[in-house]
Amino acid sequence: MTHYRRYAEHRGWTADMLDWAESEFFGYERVTLSISGRGGTWPAFRFESGLHRTLFYSMTGPLGSPATAVAEVLAYPEPAWRDRVTVNDADIRIDTYCPGLSCFGNRNPTTYLTHLPTGITASSSAAPSQYSNKRRALQLLASRLDALAENRCTTATFGRARPQCRTEPIRTYDYFTNRITDHRIDLTVPRVFEPGALDALVAALRRADPGA
User: Fold this and answer.
1) Which of 28-42, 72-86, 116-130 is least confident?
2) Paired strand residues for 50
3) What is the reported pTM?
4) Which residues are within 8 A (CB) of 62 and not within 5 positions of it... i.e. 6 or more apart?
5) Alpha carbon of 113 to those of 66, 95, 116: distances in Å?
6) CA–CA separation, 57 vs 76, rounded Å?
7) What are the b/e assignments for 140-173, b being 16+ CB within 10 Å?
8) CATH of domain 1-81+165-208
9) What is the DSSP letter of 25?
10) Which SUPFAM superfamilies is this protein grouped with (predicted)?
11) For 110-148, what is each residue's pLDDT tens digit?
């Protein structure tokens, strides 16, 4: 998540966290980012869907011991308002979850939307008001329904119970050697900590895909 936010800043784009869930161990268990800006954000992120593997030094195990983490990334474009799938209010169930005993704690309330005909869900806890979170969640739900209509995903992709992905990682971030390897095109670039490293991978992926 931090890698993408740095890359968006590097390109002059805005990366907003719409929803997230912190892991009980370290970092985040789930993050939803909305990246917008001039210059075409979708061409830069259209190749990001898949498993991403990170090799790093463990912070909980023996000092200096290696560790591996795998995250699943799902990227899809946000349609323009005029092109979005029409969503009827009667087809949406709205649930609001508050931190602790009330919605006045240190954490924002979470608005959770469920599209009843498909079971697709979307949520947001980025704003302190339920109205703003509902608006953000509706924006996300419309994007996911559009992805479904364009056959870029299935209903199980955005449901409450996500199926375990059994494919091989498409990319490895190796903090031991300070390199990033994209396994689809067998390309390794240096400087894993620099957001500009993703530019080289995106350019190579676009050259390898004539339809990009």
Assistant:
1) 72-86
2) 73
3) 0.68
4) none
5) 39, 6, 9
6) 31
7) bbbbbbbbbeeeebeeeebeeeeeeeeeebbbbb
8) 3.30.70.1660
9) S
10) Release factor
11) 888 999 998 888 888 877 788 888 888 888 888 788 777
